[in-house]
Amino acid sequence: MTDSTALHAATLSLDTHVDIPWPSPPDPRGETTRCVDYPKMVAGGLNAVVFAAYLPQGPRTPQSHEEAATRAEAMLRSIRASAAGAGRRICSRAADVEAAFEAGDTAVLLAVENGYGLGEDLSRLALWRGLGVCYLTLTHNGHNLLSDSAIPLAALGDAPALHGGLSEFGRAAIAEMNALGILVDVSHVAKSGMMQAVELSRSPVVATHTCCRALRDHPRNLDDDQLDALRASGGLVQITAVPAFLRNADPDGRFRAKVSDIIDHVDYAVKRIGITHVGLSSDFDGGGGVEGWRSAAESASLTAELARRGYSAEEIGLLWSGNFLRLMRKAEAVAAGG
């Protein structure tokens, strides 16, 4: 066993953003074609995962909002059922994740990607929290009723901006998320909305799957002003494994990236805002995957590259899970009146 292998085995590793296929998710108890299933997690020493119920943006109409809400809740229940059926531990609080790791159990957390499913009904947030949701990504591609998106969708008739950042409904949603202990995820959110969310939220916000715009000029990445805002507010950027966020296209027009490219973005963010405000995610089964980290089975390769670059065991633990668990605890404390 190499030093980095032992280090990875001793580290609580948590991937904060993995999508699930829908409407027919394969059973993750056995080997599947997915990047993340339970056998691959075991093979790669990945201890915990946030499975996201992803909602593609559609028309902003009552019927479409209701359909999105129905889909979100069906996906959340499917994640819970498959985890329970496989004997995995469903976790909605930081202490639950740590207890699962100590017991040698796989921890499964839940999230919703795109507040589209709320429609205009804030009461759904309490339902989602009851189903175990630890964060809500405010938007996806395309503006919704909560916020402008970093990527407007012309096919939906989007102008460059709809609300000038957050809408009044979006502000109310953040207040309710704070009250419930749901983290505010600003991935996919326009810079205007992201900066407003940082100012408004009583608990630190997180970008669960993004990269650094200084290294790759992509509308989904965070620029230095945004990174600085996260540091000032105690927030967190989770560097993700999406080739188009990591590198410019090759001469043939394809996006290719390696584990070293991920850690280049980690290095940049750490130097810019500090180790306690940076983490890791994959966006597997939603577009993530680079050479050396094509699936959960190769998760140890990130630990090996971090160790090669001189990160300590404590720092690697912060990047893999410690920083995200800190934000979860803060959200829990805010919800409890702390």
Brief description of this entry?
With 338 residues, this protein is α/β, with parallel strands linked by helices. The chain has 12 helices and 9 strands. It has one domain: TIM Barrel.
Q: What does this protein look like?
A:
- GO terms for molecular function: metallodipeptidase activity.
- This protein is α/β, with parallel strands linked by helices.
- It has one domain: TIM Barrel.
- It contains twelve helices and nine strands.
- The strands form two sheets. Strands 1, 2, 3, 4, 5 and 6 form a six-stranded parallel sheet that branches.
- Helix 2 links the parallel strand 1 and strand 2.
- The mean pLDDT is 96.
Structure keywords:
338 residues; alpha/beta; six-stranded parallel sheet; Pept_M19; Metal_Hydrolase; Membrane dipeptidase
Topology:
Blueprint: H1 3-10, E1 14-19, H2 38-43, E2 48-54, H3 62-85, E3 89-90, H4 94-103, E4 107-113, H5 123-130, E5 133-137, H6 168-180, E6 183-185, H7 191-200, E7 206-210, H8 224-233, E8 236-239, H9 243-246, H10 259-273, E9 278-280, H11 300-308, H12 313-335
Parallel strand pairs: 1-2, 2-4, 3-4, 4-5, 5-6, 7-8, 8-9
Strand content: 5-15%
N-C termini distance = 44 Å
Low-confidence stretches: none
Overall shape:
globular
For the CA atoms, what is the radius of gyration? 18 Å
In the CATH hierarchy, what is the class? Alpha Beta
What's the order of the H and E elements? HEHEHEHEHEHEHEHEHHEHH
State the domain count.
Answer: 1
- Residue share in helix: 40-55%
User: Could you tell me the mean pLDDT?
Assistant: 96
Do you know the CATH architecture? Alpha-Beta Barrel
Largest sheet: 6 strands, parallel
CATH superfamily: Metal-dependent hydrolases
Structural class: alpha/beta
Number of separate helices: 12
